[in-house]
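To whoever is on call:

I kicked off a structure prediction for a single chain this morning and the downstream step that reads the tokens threw a length-mismatch warning. I double-checked the sequence; it's 268 residues and nothing unusual in it as far as I can see. Pasting both halves so you can look.
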Amino acid sequence: MWALDQPYVPRADRFLADTPLVLLAVLAVGAGTAAILVELAVLPRQAAGIAGVTAGHGALLATALAWARVGFAPRVIAVALIGLAAAASELGALGSLAYLGPALWVGFLSARGRLTSLGLGTPVSLARVTAGVLVGTGLSGHLLVSASRMLGVHVRVDHVPEALGAIAYDLGANVLAAECFFRGALFTRAERRWSFAAASTVATSAYVLRYLIDPLLPKSVELMVGAIFYLALLGAINCWLRSWSASLVPGLVSASIFFAAYRTLGAR
């Protein structure tokens, strides 16, 4: 009788449920092994970079796909496409166009309705996409003006092919993996459990930390402080865009515009 009187409350899944631990371990071991072999001069220097890009971005994208209940094979394909693109980019700027492969693969999965829980493949209005454009443009303009006036960093593109290759990397790996995981997967899962403020804080803090440990990020104090400010602002606003629009597209647009502007910053 007690069981009949008590309301049924379904048990929530663990926060880290469906995390692809085996695949993440394989990526970590692969990156570590490549780094050791490079130090021993068994592999060329580029191998460490390729393995690092594959492990870093592949782990984020594979985890996002796993949390969206996508099967093992599509996850492995996504990681493999990032690895192939990283290797192709070492051949020259044109090779970086291979980074469009992961973006097209995610687009294919979205069109099949496999990524709706991430906010991809769901209807999104033009007004909400426009909001993403405005956010990206506003942050980009502020970044370029601030960097020029305060840090003496000039807006210029010395090598157009290299800049285009960097933008392709952002579209197919950097921005794609980060938005899919931090906003599409992590923030969405956190918001189901906690308030928007708490979920946004968790997702944005993890997002900023991801870039702070990135070996490619300049390590000077003023640039680190600037990076924390802009990445935290971008992350928090993109969380709001994800919650407001119920889509990941506006955030993808804003982040793509922001990083494209970042690629135009030259030397002091």
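Update from on-call: the warning came from a stale cache, not from the record. Cleared it. Sanity check on the structure: The chain has two domains: 21-111, 122-262.
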